[in-house]
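seq:
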Amino acid sequence: SIMDGATLEPLKIVGTRGMTVDGEYHPEPRVASIVSSFVKPEWVINIKETGQIKLVDYSDINNLKETTIESAKFLHDGGWDSTKRYFLVAANASNKVAVVDTQEGKLAALVDTAKKPHPGRGANFTHPQYGPVWTTGHLGADVLTLIGTDPAGHKDNAWKVVQEIPHIGAGNLFVKSHPVSKNLWADAPLNPERSIATSVAVYDTDDLGKPPRVLDVAKDSGLPETKAVKRAVHPEYSADGSEVWISLWGGKTDQSAIVVYDDKTLNVVKVITDPKMITP
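struct:
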């Protein structure tokens, strides 16, 4: 659905049904994620079940122009590289990450990864050996995967897995970095072990061989332990990169919280909670 940005009035509805990358017709594929290009008036639309990526020129919505890129199933979350030219999106049923060159309007690469990549938006930082990289975690593997993203300055590493970092467990949903920080944060809320699901790991991007600092977010919230696991999920930086905010997902009736950490010291800055804050 294309809507007016100010009023949210629907302006146009465009169907997603069509052929999958396997050559089969799908009557009702879902849109997994949409982002807007930084280089042209165009949306990058990832059609989950078909494995097709649509580049849609929205400069004239009465005469839409679409470029269809075949990638892999099932498309899910994704994010930009540090230059905002390339969009990287997980095809988690295929254990791949698709790389779209939004300037050229074509697929740059399909990168094989560990099982079920799930990047959220992914995390960018400069690796001391491999240069600029983009990071994804995994639902099905206990590693964080680093993919080289600099075809101009580090051609030999571009669109390749340059390193896998051991994570505290599988079940990751989000990784996060910030341009002014040397930390890489990663959760594991879907891990079956309580102690892992309630925690996040913080890696030093200058020394990735060093074990991460592991923070038990549920314990740091000060809330009592309940039958349901309080899962630590989605670390998110403040705009200036000084703090990281992490949500707790609890049970259907359990009080939950947002725990705020200082990015440098990893100390708790604030716990935001209320009996009415319930996030099952």
